[in-house]
């Protein structure tokens, strides 16, 4: 089991499927991130290196609102 941007990902899933569990990442965006980093579509999450995981987190952090920012925004909107 692995955590990326606050989302719990199952190690046996392919990266293209598992990364959609990250808040704000849909299938199209998951493909773009994977393509930009040069990660194969068939690789499983448990096969990612620490370097690849860090690259994914950095790219998601730069281009997207991360998990804790989404939750903060939801709470602020409710109050």
From TrEMBL:
<dbReference type="GO" id="GO:0003723">
    <property type="term" value="F:RNA binding"/>
</dbReference>
<dbReference type="GO" id="GO:0005840">
    <property type="term" value="C:ribosome"/>
</dbReference>
<dbReference type="Pfam" id="PF00416">
    <property type="entry name" value="Ribosomal_S13"/>
</dbReference>
<keyword id="KW-0689">Ribosomal protein</keyword>
<dbReference type="GO" id="GO:1990904">
    <property type="term" value="C:ribonucleoprotein complex"/>
</dbReference>
<comment type="similarity">
    <text>Belongs to the universal ribosomal protein uS13 family.</text>
</comment>
<dbReference type="GO" id="GO:0003735">
    <property type="term" value="F:structural constituent of ribosome"/>
</dbReference>
<protein>
    <recommendedName>
        <fullName>Ribosomal protein S13</fullName>
    </recommendedName>
</protein>
<dbReference type="InterPro" id="IPR010979">
    <property type="entry name" value="Ribosomal_uS13-like_H2TH"/>
</dbReference>
<dbReference type="GO" id="GO:0006412">
    <property type="term" value="P:translation"/>
</dbReference>
<dbReference type="InterPro" id="IPR001892">
    <property type="entry name" value="Ribosomal_uS13"/>
</dbReference>
<keyword id="KW-0687">Ribonucleoprotein</keyword>
């Amino acid at each position: 089991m692995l955590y990326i941007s606050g989302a719990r990902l199952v190690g046996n899933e392919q990266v293209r499927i598992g990364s959609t569990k990250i808040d704000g990442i849909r299938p199209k965006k998951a493909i773009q991130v994977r393509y930009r980093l040069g990660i194969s579509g068939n690789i499983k999450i448990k096969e990612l290196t620490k370097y690849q995981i860090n690259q994914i987190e950095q790219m998601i952090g730069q281009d997207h609102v991360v998990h804790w920012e989404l939750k903060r925004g939801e709470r602020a909107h409710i109050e």
